[in-house]
Specification:
Elements: H1 35-38, H2 42-56, H3 88-94, H4 102-124, H5 133-158, H6 170-173, H7 182-197, H8 215-232, H9 238-254, E1 281-285, H10 298-302, H11 324-329, H12 335-340, E2 341-344, E3 351-354, E4 374-378, H13 379-392, H14 396-409, H15 415-418, H16 422-427, H17 431-442, H18 449-456, H19 459-467, H20 493-496
Antiparallel strand pairs: 1-4, 2-3
């Protein structure tokens, strides 16, 4: 049946957006309307856009528990359980990922679901007459941002991926089932984000609109995209891309509504009570405290047996495991360590677990229905990317100024002073490695680390980097498994077999 919102696009399930009034968390039956007759009013477009936001929340997409697809791939977190769920989650951190992995397939489908929902909005928005043109442009910009965000995640994880920018009927699916080159995907990401930064969206969202896309978010993401292209894509435009990365990251920084980063306590960034007012936050996925369906569970899920720091909910397992490798990277007296991680002493744990996300309020209660939002973009991230891009451009003095903003807030000595310390100098002998280190300890468990590693090292350099680490700091996951093929994920087997020629498998799988 053509034009049903529930069409399966071969490589992605297209789910409908549906009525939710002004609450863009609550969604109803996605199959209750057809595209042909759904888009009638401005509110229909709004609820469709809200449906795109709703799909972001999936833990198979970018929700708070999506670290399996990024953080566990890095050297920050992992697991020592290689038996649960047929051992499939363990494969990500063990670098033994198979194309048949069902978690990998679920991630792929969830990501294309978001893209498909965005495409439905953009393919049908012109059917509706708007009282104000800026309203229409704003909704379109939100949809384009989310499409760009997801493609940015996918192109870094898989390389070449199917690039679809319109609603497809069943008859059109086969012709669009092929992998587009990564350069083409990046071109579309840039085009979408340029529309965002030139849109009538506000610089920041406030009040009930927190969690929606803003110009600050558009500039931050576009700057990161250009920085990633400059360091990972051999298209002869490195310097041009670095200059553009600096332009958009600086534009985002100049929009800030605070003076110095040190004036914002690190703990405020993750405080449930301040998630609507903290000026460091640029974009977050919104969760509803106390709501059994839409509450955050990250605090409770990360808590280890015998611990009470994160949540009132009683934990019995190991919680959010932290590698010894990350623990060893924190500098002495780094306040971020004391806030972000803690050692659990229960007999079945005896290990470090994540404490960065907390809600011990009575409103969250003993069920652990927390109010934590999951932060996607914040200013410390932007500042450290400005340090990175200025370093690549040869302006080390400016790079160090940005680096020191983050170090100062954490109570760490300035970079020049730290370099006089033999231990610091030995671990981070170059400014490049010092910035990578700062991003690791500042942004731990926020799903940045894997992408930071991909941006910093070539595939072979990354192999050497992992192989030089101490295996004892990673439990039973084998660092020796890591090879150049692990730069990308395999294409899920069900997608590859749709057309083994056009949906060709990544090298080594």
């Amino acid at each position: 049946m053509k034009n049903r919102i529930s069409i399966i696009l071969g490589f992605a399930a297209v789910l409908a957006t549906s009525a939710c009034n002004k609450d863009f968390l609550n969604q109803t039956d996605p199959n209750s309307q057809t595209v042909d007759n759904y888009f009638q009013t401005e509110n229909d477009v709004l609820t469709a856009v809200n449906g795109v936001y709703q799909s972001l929340r999936s833990d198979n997409a970018l929700g708070e528990s999506s670290g399996l697809f990024s953080e566990e791939r890095s050297d920050n977190t992992g697991r020592n359980d290689n038996q649960s769920n047929a051992g499939e989650p363990f494969q990500f951190g063990d670098f033994s990922l198979l194309p048949s992995n069902t978690y990998l397939k679920s991630h792929w489908v969830a990501m294309y679901q978001i893209i498909s929902r965005a495409n439905i909005v953009l393919s049908n928005i012109d059917k509706v007459t708007f009282a104000k043109e800026d309203t229409k442009k704003g909704y379109a910009a939100e949809a384009k941002f989310m499409r760009a965000l997801i493609y940015f995640h996918m192109v870094r994880k898989w390389g070449d991926v199917p690039l679809v920018t319109k609603q497809l009927s069943l008859d059109e699916v086969k012709a669009n089932t092929f992998r587009s080159k990564d350069t083409a995907v990046y071109s579309q990401i840039v085009a979408d984000l340029l529309d965002v930064v030139n849109s009538p969206l506000p610089d920041f969202q406030t009040g009930a609109n927190i969690g929606r896309v803003s110009k600050a978010a558009g500039n931050a993401l576009l700057g990161q995209v250009y920085l990633t292209m400059a360091t990972t894509i051999a298209n002869g435009k490195r310097d041009e891309n670095l200059a553009k990365a600096k332009q958009y990251l600086q534009a985002c920084y100049d929009m800030r509504k605070f003076g110095a980063l040190k004036d914002i306590p690190y703990t405020d960034v993750f405080s449930v009570d301040k998630k609507g007012t903290c000026p460091e936050l640029i974009l977050q996925i919104v969760y509803k405290q106390g709501d059994a369906t839409y509450a955050s569970k990250i605090a409770a899920n990360n808590q280890a047996n015998g611990e009470t720091i994160n949540s009132q909910k009683t934990a019995s397992g190991v919680g959010g495991n932290v590698t010894g490798d990350l623990i060893n990277e924190y500098e002495a007296s780094d306040l971020r360590k004391d806030f972000s991680v803690h050692y659990a002493n229960a007999s079945n744990v005896k290990d470090w677990y994540i404490t960065k996300f907390r809600d011990v309020s009575d409103a969250a209660g003993k069920n652990g229905y927390g109010g934590n939002d999951f932060v996607l973009i914040r200013y410390a991230d932007v500042i450290l990317m400005l340090a990175e891009v200025n370093m690549y451009l040869g302006d080390n003095a400016t790079a160090i100024q940005f680096l020191d903003m983050v170090r100062e807030r954490a109570g760490m000595p300035a970079y020049a002073t730290a370099m006089q310390d033999a231990a610091y100098n030995a671990k981070f002998p170059t400014l490049k490695l010092a910035i990578l280190h700062e991003r690791r300890v500042e942004l731990a468990f926020e799903n940045h680390r894997w992408f930071d590693l991909l941006r910093t090292f070539t595939a072979q350099e990354l192999v050497d980097y992992f192989h030089a680490k101490d295996q004892a700091s990673f439990g039973i996951a084998k660092l020796s498994n890591f090879s150049t093929k692990d730069r990308y994920y395999p294409i899920p087997f069900d997608e590859y077999k749709l057309d083994p020629v056009k949906m060709y498998q990544n090298t080594g799988y």
